[in-house]
Design brief:
Immunoglobulin-like; Nuclear Transport Factor 2, Chain: A; 325 residues; four-stranded antiparallel sheet
């Protein structure tokens, strides 16, 4: 009896000391916990991901260690409130997951002095969004996992989140582009082919996704892959719409076709050829690395539809590198 009590007391002291050391590091600002939108865009009530990047920075002179669950629901939580301080309900899947009596697998993360560690989570995995509105978002980090009661959670900074009503759809069923800065519907202009390409590349440099996609035919871009084209043609209208929206999200997240969505440092339009119906625009894009700059030649193919030039395809040619010295 006494031996078991001694073991429990010893374990409690170890955990308590770890918790106190952790709290001291956080309270003195030596370990910082921050969140930001991973790739901010216009968000709708519909089920599109809302990615938030969580960053832990160690400003102490020693290594900082914490537990990170394989299922991040046991390492992080989100509190999202309306402007009237009403908390939004947790997602049903999250509630079911936490109520199950399953073993939580984790790994120990060590952050050296002066280093940071980041990971990304989708707010929709944690919170049920049912209505449009303006919200305040903060995260809670559990260094000793969600089920532990010895070490409390750590709060992060707040983010301002705006959820719009269901997106406005154009004649093709795809949501119309909304300018995230003004909230206005973006309208395609009668620009010459080289200016369309310049508009698209500049938008990518500024991470303005709504402008990046404005002059792009997603259906044509998706159909560049023969397998995807066959899948697309075999679907009904609703399935095609969902596939296009998934393709767009994958482009944004660089899951596919990253040659079109990668961010160049600088670029030059070097050649433009067109007739009444088709155009090709050649550009040199430069991608700066630490010791060198990579050069790529992009050829964009455009079609003219109702006097509007639309990008339907592209090709890439590697042109070597130049020294940054």
């Amino acid at each position: 009896m006494n031996k078991n009590f001694g073991k429990l007391a010893f374990l409690f002291i170890i955990l308590l000391n770890g918790g106190l050391s952790f709290l001291y590091a956080v309270e003195t600002g030596k370990v910082e916990f921050n969140i930001r939108f991973y790739d901010r865009q216009v968000y709708y009530v519909e089920s599109y991901p809302i990615y938030v990047q969580i960053t832990i920075t160690n400003n102490s002179p020693y290594a900082y260690r914490f537990k990170l669950a394989d299922d991040r629901a046991f390492s992080v939580d989100f509190d999202i409130r309306t402007m009237t301080n009403r908390s939004l309900p947790s997602a049903d899947a999250l509630i079911r997951k936490r109520n199950q009596n399953n073993h939580v697998f984790f790994r120990e993360i060590s952050i050296e002095s002066g280093e940071s560690f980041s990971f990304t989570e989708d707010l929709r995995d944690y919170i049920s969004f049912q209505q449009p509105g303006s919200y305040m978002v903060r995260a809670f980090i559990y260094p000793e996992l969600y089920r532990s009661v010895l070490v409390p959670a750590v709060e992060t900074n707040y983010l301002s989140l705006s959820i719009r009503p269901e997106s406005i759809r154009g004649p093709d069923g795809i949501p119309l582009e909304i300018d995230i800065a003004t909230g206005a519907v973006l309208v395609r202009q009668q620009l010459p082919p080289d200016e369309v390409v310049t508009y698209m590349i500049t938008a990518r440099q500024r991470s303005q996704w709504e402008r990046f996609f404005l002059y792009m035919d997603l259906e044509a871009m998706l159909s560049r892959d023969p397998y995807q084209r066959r899948r697309y043609l075999s679907m009904n209208e609703t399935e095609r719409r969902n596939m296009l929206e998934e393709y767009r999200r994958n482009l944004q997240n660089a899951v596919i076709d990253d040659n079109i969505s990668v961010i160049p440092t600088t670029f030059d339009i070097v050649k433009t050829e067109y007739n009444n119906y088709e155009a090709t625009v050649t550009a040199i894009l430069r991608f700066r690395e630490i010791n060198f700059t990579q050069l790529r030649q992009y050829t964009y193919f455009l079609e003219r539809r109702d006097n509007i030039w639309i990008i339907v395809d592209y090709a890439v040619l590697l042109m070597g590198t130049t020294s940054n010295d």
